[in-house]
Design brief:
The complex is a heterodimer of chains A (118) and B (267). By secondary structure, chain A is of the alpha+beta class. Chain A is built from four helices and five strands, in the order H-E-E-H-E-H-H-E-E. The chains are: A alpha+beta (118), B mainly alpha (267). Chains A and B meet through helix 2, helix 3 and helix 4 of A and helix 4, helix 5, helix 6 and helix 7 of B.
């Protein structure tokens, strides 16, 4: 409890230990929706009313992005966000791109793609 | 009744109260609450039209999440009151983690520490004092040591992620001030103009608190310093219920003097 659990928190954050308030991340989320081969950009805020919890709040920030404590959990669920895009936006394919810059200045680029069921 | 059992009983009641309030809409009355509950019980499902992405494949139907919210609330109250405190605490924590798993993006280390604290107290001898249904203590001294070690470890492990340039330079605190976490003039003073000093002082205090709290001779000084630190946090930033959680667990360090019996000594 005193050693294993905080070491295990490396799974949820940038370092072992209890990371509340120890850092921040600037992020920007992009949603690319494909109807056929042609992509069009859609604001992630379009998905916000369909998502519950904190995900809804992050999507509301939309493509403007914002500054939050961490986007590690959001990063892990990018395929789910793309899947939500399929369901809500009625496209053939949805791509989600997450650009994040942490307080060290490290930039990370992640993306997920989901082919939508016809 | 041993002093250890008294300390643990107080800590159980106080932390149980924080646990119970944190998961109801009552908590919205406190400043700085992360994702204040939109319903009477925190984590209550919004409706079928809203999608949840659960952690570890633990997605549950809305009816099950609602039931878990109720179980968490009832078990939390029983734990606080000291009625079947051990099973109640374990059930409350399990239910709380399952509800939290429905919104992993909103995961918060403060509530994680709250749940671990309840678990440590539930598994120990925190149910024999200040309880409606007290149970005879089994190993109060080792239970108190476990709780105290856990609290000391929280301070130590909170300092580790802060041993980085962005924190030590005050950059992170200034960013939180920009995000609206600073409270009033004191918030601007500590997170703005004196962010670097505040950041260094916080890390130094957190690292010092672990040994101060674990060594018996310095324990009182450790408790006073920790309470002063949390009071400063409450006055300057908005750290959810972190201060309440830690002060509740610090009760496990307050040594109770045995009450002297009244009346005169017999012949």
């Amino acid at each position: 409890m005193c050693v294993v659990v905080p070491l295990g928190s490396r799974l949820f954050g940038p370092s072992p230990g209890y990371t509340m308030f120890a850092g921040y991340t600037d992020f920007r989320l992009e949603l690319r929706v494909f109807d056929g081969d042609r992509p069009r950009a859609v604001s992630p805020s379009a998905l916000a009313p369909h998502a519950s919890g904190y995900l809804g709040a992050l999507l509301t920030l939309g493509d403007r992005g914002g500054r939050v404590r961490s986007v590690d959990a959001l990063r892990a669920h990018l395929p789910d966000v793309a899947g939500l895009g399929c369901e809500v936006l009625g496209a053939t394919r949805v791509e989600v791109v997450l650009d994040a810059r942490d307080d060290d200045g490290d930039v990370r680029h992640d993306s997920a793609e989901q082919r939508c069921a016809p | 009744m041993s002093s250890d059992a008294r300390q643990l009983g107080w800590a159980r009641a106080a932390l149980g109260l924080v646990f119970t309030v944190r998961h109801t809409s009552l908590v919205a009355g406190l400043p700085g609450i992360h994702l204040p509950p939109q319903h009477l019980l925190a984590g209550w499902p919004d409706g079928e039209s809203q999608h949840r992405f659960a952690a570890l494949g633990l997605a549950l139907p809305n009816s099950a999440v609602s039931a878990l919210c109720v179980v968490r609330a009832v078990a939390g109250v029983l734990f606080t009151l000291g009625v079947a405190a051990r099973p109640a605490g374990v059930v409350a924590v399990l239910a709380a983690y399952l509800v939290a798993a429905q919104d992993p993006i909103g995961f918060l280390f403060t509530t994680h520490i709250l749940y671990l604290g309840v678990l440590v107290l539930a598994l120990g001898d925190a149910r024999s004092f200040f309880a409606l249904r007290p149970v005879a203590p089994e190993a109060p001294t080792s239970s108190a040591w476990l709780v105290q070690s856990f609290v000391a470890s929280v301070y130590f492990w909170s300092a580790i992620p802060k041993l980085r340039g962005p924190w030590l330079s005050g950059q992170v605190l200034r960013a939180y001030l920009d995000l609206g976490y600073g409270r009033g003039v004191l918030g601007s003073f500590f997170l703005g103009a004196h962010a670097r000093t505040s950041a260094l002082a916080t890390v130094a205090l957190e690292l010092a608190l672990a040994p101060l709290l674990l060594v018996r001779r310095t324990r009182t000084a450790g408790v006073v310093l920790a309470c002063a630190m949390h009071t400063t946090f409450e006055l300057t930033v908005r750290p959810d219920v972190l201060g309440w959680v830690m002060v509740a667990m610090l009760l496990a360090f307050v040594e109770a003097r045995p009450r002297e019996r009244g009346g005169k000594a017999g012949p």
